[in-house]
Amino acid sequence: MKQALNMSITIQEFEKKHTKSMPIAYMLVSSLFFVIVSKIVRLLHGFGSTQIFFFRSIITLSINTIVISIMRDNPYTNDKAIHKLLIFRCLIAGIGHYSFYQAMYMLDITESITIFQTSPFWVTILAGIILKEKIKANMFYTLIFSFLGILFIIQPPFVKNILGINYVQIERDQSERMLGFFFACLQSFMIAFSMVVLKKLSSGVSNLIIIHYALISCCFIGGLDLINKAEFNSAIFLPQTFVLVVLVAIFNYFAQLLYCRAIMLGEASKLAPYTYSTIVFGFIIEILIFHKETNLLSILGSSLIIFGNIYSYNKNKT
Predict the structure, then answer these.
(1) For residue 172, what pLDDT is reported?
(2) Cβ within 8 Å of residue 8, ≥6 positions away
C-alpha cells in the first residue's frame, strides 16, 4: 500500500515537470486502449452486447474499488454541489458506455469509431451552453463536414443511388444499421457531455472517484437491460471466453483512467483533436492484424470528419 502511494506521488511529480506532454500522452494511450477494447468485443461472438457490457462493468468496478481502497480515497463527499455533479455525470457516462457497446455490435468498427469522433463538436456546443464559452462560426463548418462524413460512413440507400453504387436492400440489416448509427451518435453526445461535466469536477474530486460513480451507473443500466431482454448465454463463463471479458474490463479501465487524467491535467479543447488517433489506430490494427480491406467511402467519410474538426481546432487557436 505504501509503495502504491509513493508511486502515485512520483507520477504526480513527473506530471508537474511535463505539464504539456503528459495530457497528450495519456490521451493517445487511452485512445489505443479504447480501440483494443473494441477489437476484443468483436471477438466475443454469440453474446449480446448488454451481457458483455454488464460483466465488463462489474469486473471494472471491482478493480476500481480495490484501487480506491489501496489509494485510501473516500468515495463519498459532503459537498452537495460536487455530489450532484458526480451523480449527473455517472448517469450520462453510463448511457454513453451502454450506447458504445450497442453501436459496436451494429456497425463496423471503423464506422462506429469514426462517428464517436464527432464528440469534439458537441464539446464545443455544450461548453458554450454550460461553461459560457463563446461559440465561433467555424464550428458550423465542422457540423457540415461531420454530417457529410457520417453519410459516407453509414451509406444510406439514397447516398448509394446518388453515387451509382449497386446494393441489395435488406430491411432488417438496414434498420439495425440505422439503430447502430443512433447509438453511435448518442454515445458521441453523452461522452462530450460527460467531458464538460468532468472538467467542472476536476478540481474537486479525484479521477478514481469519478470513474467509480460512472461504473456504478453502468452496472445498474446494464443489469436492468439484461433482465429486460432475458437473454443470457452461460458460455460467457467458459475460461477462454471469460478471459476475453476480463481483458475488455482491464483495457477499458486503464483507458478511462488515462482519459480522465488527461482532461484533468490539460485543456479539453486542445486535447479533443488527439481523440482522432483512435481512427488511425483502428485502421492500422484492421489492416495489419485482421487483414481487412477498408471501404473507400468510409475512408472519405473519416477524412471529412477529421478535416472538419481539425479545421475548427486550428481556427480556435487564432
Answers:
(1) 45
(2) 71
